Amino acid sequence: MDTPPLTPATLLLTLDILGTFVFAMSGAAAGVKKQLDVFGVCVLAFVAATAGGLARDVLIGAVPPAGISDWRYIATSLAAGAVTFLWYPRVQRLNTVILVFDAAGLGLFAVAGTEKALAYGLDPAASAMLGMLTGIGGGVVRDVLVNEVPVVLRADLYAVAALAGAAVVIFGSILHLPGAIMAPTGAVLCFLMRLVAIRRRVNLPVASEGAGVRQ
Predict the structure, then answer these.
(1) pTM of the model as a whole
(2) Which residue from 74, 76, 166, 212 has the least number of CB within 10 angstroms?
């Protein structure tokens, strides 16, 4: 029996669901770290998983946004939140787990957001920007809710990594390369850039009051 071909719509949905799950886990993990109750953990999971996609869909006119109109996104984020709430207390290296899930979600959402923007007819530059927004939006809202400076505003290569992943998708679209290859490649590139930046402490230049820019 032949395997059905992977259509762009199926690829987009798959990337979105995977990104929803891993970003929801990063949001839930942040909630557990802050010792929130199960409701708070699930709220952070939902917000981290859907905020970027909601903003993207509103901007491109895909309303009502899939994050609140499609039960699969809601169920996926809440399931990830519940699983993390039950499993996370056994994990000792909290920061490592959070960062790995966050990096994975960033890569998946950046390429999924770019693919969806392209599907709605946006030009390559706008599609890349919306891909970045999809990747960083949930993390920004998550960090604000737990009273932390959003990661994207710090020195880490966060938005830059999302843009790099989006650029791979744009490059493949321009050259008419298979999306089933370019999308995962972009997600992996973004993921690896984030992990290298975290492990090697690769930072962008940081402004220092009264002393100009410091490295």
Answers:
(1) 0.82
(2) 212
